[in-house]
Design goal:
This protein has about 650 residues and is an alpha/beta fold. It folds into three domains: about 30-360, Alpha-Beta Barrel (TIM Barrel), CATH 3.20.20.70; about 385-480 and about 610-655, NAD(P)-binding Rossmann-like Domain (Rossmann fold); about 495-605, FAD/NAD(P)-binding domain, CATH 3.50.50. It contains 21 helices and 28 strands. Strands 3-4-5-8-9-10-11-12 form an eight-stranded parallel β-barrel, surrounded by six helices. Helix 3 runs parallel beside helix 6 (about 200-215) and helix 13 (about 395-405) runs parallel beside helix 21. It starts with 17 loop residues before the first strand and ends with a helix.
Length: about 650
């Protein structure tokens, strides 16, 4: 295989300068605000500063920080990221100085969480609890509103002192200002609620106070709600009215906000087409030709960004998670080295899901070193090592790449004539085509790093003895789990999910899927999307857990909503007793009765079993070996892209 890739023409629009008030930017790439779960830990500000500085050094035009609260009530937690007192300024100077040393520019996003704060002192426009938050907020009274407006202004003033180049006022995404703007959140009957002019009063007061505090020459970015996608959100006319109401206070950049955390339509998952909402920015830009606009949401390719600028959809492009996937995205785009870009696939597993669930430091599934203290650095091995990697799925590709970057001489064996393993199947599921980008990046990067790739070659006992390996990495993956204990499971209409996804096997409906994990639900989605008309699909899960329970919080609801909308029957707590030529007989443990479910085809998607590779031969030869990815599992395995690449990375970094 060859590592060569053509260098494409330069992106003239994306890499042209733009001026925000008195701030000159070298290009039109805006790194959007990203909560990192590092922000609220005062011990992590040096790490956070390095995270931002690395991206600044790689050439992003303007970085926007994580949302920073102007007061105690607006923090995510009592220790949340804030600039609510002068004592906080030195920690923020750590960030701004690091970015400026890297020749970058950085804006502070001022964000008050309102009813989305996770502490008992939260406030909002109204005393209405947000979903998933255990506390009911206190509705701000007149004195509280006045104090909060002043807190915004004071925070902006401290941002100037701390060395930030601009501030972004987040008035969207369902946070405090948005909670005043949208009727869905604001049920007040005083001068701060009811008609639009009243609901917009708080936003206007904050804008006026902040502009007065920072002066007319300091850049203010407004992230405004332009398409709420919720019942009771701002109407398009009200979004226009909000822009008109704020224009007197100097909108130096209007960052177009799409949706919020309570939106009824997906806005940031892999199921959302690229640049799906760019038309919103285009319409507003036509309405306000004197303003500078940034388009956002699911723009992950700089060539797409260039087209949006060229076509007049926006003046800048806001990308957040793509800068998690590749810190050097701007530099690679500027050089036209698009094959070298590690593309964000919007899987949400290590970013959004961590924000809303785990609390772990945010990272990136396809870039396992993202935001780590050592990000971008691969220390050389003390001595040359010759390593064989058995398996070219994502775990094997990752291990091969990371070892090669440390200086190992790596040979990768893959039994098939293509790389990617299970990701190739995943990419055939509707809305998961982005996985192709991960295969593309890791294949290209491995070749660039000097990995020798042998396709159509399984790693066998002969290969164990053929060369003087210092170490062997077993990334042989897994095979679908069979359910041989079920009578009738060997009938010809019973197939495993690979036959459906890989071979496009004809399916006779009604179809029954045995298994309730993410793969089973993906197969159901594949079937209903492929069918020309409504079809009958039933999912049978033997456990009592919720279906697809390992799919992340920010994506599972989208999958379940589609399956439910398509009429897929989903049964939990069932024991499959037998399969017949026309039915599947089960015992429903919930209802305590036997049921027979019609089945023209039965698809098994009940997990995987690890493939071990030539372990005995390696032991006989005395060659050290390490299993990564699905191969690590003792029996049934549930490896995903996140764990596979993380294990490969951690092994490679510890290897000696």
């Amino acid at each position: 295989m060859s590592a060569g890739a053509p260098v494409e023409p330069p992106l003239r629009h994306l890499f042209s300068p733009v001026r925000l008030n008195k701030l000159e930017l070298p290009n039109r790439l805006l790194m959007s605000s990203l909560h990192m779960n590092l922000d609220e830990d005062t011990r992590q500000h040096q790490r956070l500063a390095r995270f931002y500085a690395l991206r600044a050094r790689m050439g992003v035009g303007l970085i926007v920080t994580a949302g920073c609260s102007p007061d105690a009530a607006g923090k995510s937690s009592p220790s949340g990221f804030a600039l609510d007192g002068d004592s906080e300024i030195p920690r923020h100077e750590t960030i701004t100085r690091a970015v400026h040393r890297a020749k970058g520019r950085i804006a502070l996003q001022i964000l008050h969480l309102g009813r989305h704060a996770s502490h008992a002192g939260l406030v909002s426009s109204s005393a209405r609890r947000a979903p998933a938050i255990p506390y009911t907020p206190r509705a701000l009274d007149e004195a509280g509103i006045t104090a909060t407006v002043e807190a915004y202004a004071a925070c902006a003033g401290r941002a100037v002192t701390a060395g930030y180049d601009a501030v972004e006022l987040c008035f969207s995404q369902g946070f405090l200002v948005h909670q005043f703007l949208a009727p869905a959140f604001n049920t007040r009957s005083d001068r701060w609620g009811g008609i639009f002019e009243n609901r917009a009063r708080f936003a206007v007061a904050v804008a006026r106070a902040v502009r007065s505090r920072v002066g007319r020459d300091f850049p203010i970015i407004f992230r405004l709600p332009c398409l709420d996608l919720i019942s009771g959100g701002l109407s398009p006319e009200e979004s226009v009215g909000l822009v008109e109401a704020l224009t007197p206070f100097g909108i130096d950049l209007l960052n177009v906000g799409i949706g919020c955390h309570e939106s009824e339509v997906a806005t940031i998952t892999m199921s959302v087409p690229r640049a799906a909402f760019a038309g919103v920015s285009a319409r507003l830009r036509a309405r306000f030709p004197g303003l500078i606009f940034a388009a956002s949401n699911r723009i992950n390719d700089p060539r797409l960004a260039e087209r949006l600028l060229r076509d007049g959809c926006a003046d800048m492009i806001a990308m957040g998670r793509p800068f998690l996937a590749d810190a050097a995205l701007a530099d690679k785009a500027r050089r036209g080295a698009f094959a070298e870009i590690n593309t964000c696939i919007a899987c949400n597993q290590s970013c959004m899901d961590f924000i809303f669930a785990s609390g772990d430091p945010v990272g990136c599934s396809v870039a396992p070193d993202c935001a780590r203290p050592e990000e971008g650095r691969f220390p050389p091995l003390a001595a040359s090592k010759r390593v064989a990697v058995a398996g070219g799925g994502i775990a094997g590709l990752g291990a091969a790449l990371f070892l090669a970057r440390r200086g190992a001489r790596v040979t990768l064996f893959e039994s098939e004539n293509r790389l990617g393993g299970q990701l190739q199947l995943a990419a055939r599921v509707p809305d998961k085509q982005e996985f192709v980008e991960t295969i593309r990046y890791y294949s290209h990067a491995a070749l660039q790093a000097g990995v020798e790739i042998r396709l159509g070659r399984a790693f066998t006992a002969d290969d164990v003895a053929a060369e003087p390996w210092d170490h062997v990495v077993l990334a042989t993956g897994s095979r679908p789990r069979r359910l041989d204990d079920i009578p009738g499971i060997d009938l010809p209409h019973v197939i495993d999910y690979r036959d459906v996804l890989e071979n496009d096997r004809h399916i006779a409906f009604p179809a029954v899927i045995i298994g309730g994990g993410g793969v089973a639900c993906d197969v159901a989605k594949y079937l209903i999307r492929r069918a020309e008309a409504g079809v009958s699909v039933t999912i049978l899960q033997r456990s009592s857990r919720k279906l697809a329970h390992k799919v992340g919080r920010t994506t599972r609801w989208v999958l379940m909503k589609e399956l439910e909308g398509a009429g897929v029957t989903m049964l939990k707590s069932v024991d499959v007793r037998r399969v017949t030529p026309s039915e599947v007989d089960v015992i429903d443990r919930v209802e305590g009765r036997e049921r027979s479910i019609a089945a023209g085809a039965v698809i098994v998607a009940a997990g995987h079993l690890a493939l071990s590779g030539p372990v005995d031969d390696l032991r006989r030869q005395g060659i050290p070996f390490t299993a990564v990815g699905a191969s690590r599992a003792a029996e049934v395995c549930n490896t995903n892209i996140t764990s596979a690449l993380r294990e490969a990375y951690e092994f490679a970094m510890a290897f000696s």
